[in-house]
Specification:
The chain has two helices and ten strands; from the N terminus they run αββββαββββββ. With 197 residues, it is mainly beta. The chain has a single domain (28-194), classed as YmcC-like fold. β9 (173-181) and β10 (184-194) form a beta hairpin. It is globular. The model is unreliable at 1-21 (pLDDT under 50).
Length: 197
């Protein structure tokens, strides 16, 4: 009887552990994961430590039909979806697929702004957790990814930065970004998400 009780207790414990196991690895979205009419809307705001608002508005993206297939509207541009889901061959990507808790990598990015200023970002990335996160658009299972490093530009700007991205696989993108860079705090949050039935 005692042996049967111990066996039953072990089975209950193993069952509980199994139901709380880590999620499967999250792969990069593919074209097939998107639907015509799928829409995302974020609100964003950037404020200096002195209270100066440098950015404040909304950003909307939508999946639309193009001559060559599906595309995504980004601002005034429409980008072919095939370009958006193309695997990043960089050794220092923004997202190192597949995503899983505990994974670390280095992210580096070089850019040129509209006024010709060039800059670089160099950050260490780590996936901290995978859990329910609530934003204005709703509650989603999301990875918390922390990036820490530096941003520099050709005008002599050099700042430490920390970014926290909440990436939700079900919406195939981030649902919240909190960025602290020098004396500037920027927050972007998903406020609407919809797709056809």
């Amino acid at each position: 009887m005692k042996t049967q009780l111990i066996t039953l207790l072990c089975l209950i414990i193993l069952s509980a552990c199994d139901s709380q196991k880590k999620p499967d690895l999250t792969q990069q979205p593919t074209i097939e994961d998107y639907q015509l009419g799928e829409t995302w809307v974020w609100k964003y705001k950037g404020v200096t430590t002195e209270g100066e608002v440098r950015s404040d508005g909304t950003d909307k993206r939508m999946i639309v039909q193009m001559n060559e297939g599906l595309g995504m509207t980004i601002g005034n541009d429409t980008i072919p979806l095939a370009d958006i889901v193309k695997p990043d061959e960089s050794e220092t990507p923004k997202y190192d697929w597949p995503l899983e808790v505990g994974k670390t990598w280095k992210y580096e990015n070089s850019w040129t702004s509209q006024d010709g200023t060039t800059g670089t970002q160099s950050q260490q990335a780590e996936v901290l957790s995978y859990q329910e996160e609530t934003v204005e658009a709703g509650t989603f299972m999301a990875y918390t990814i922390k990036y820490t490093g530096k941003t520099t530009n050709s005008r002599g700007y050099n700042a430490d930065e920390e970014e926290i991205w909440l990436y939700a696989p079900v919406v195939k993108t981030f649902i919240k970004l909190t960025q602290s860079q020098g004396d500037f705090l920027y927050v972007e949050e998903l406020i609407e998400y919809s797709k056809p039935n």
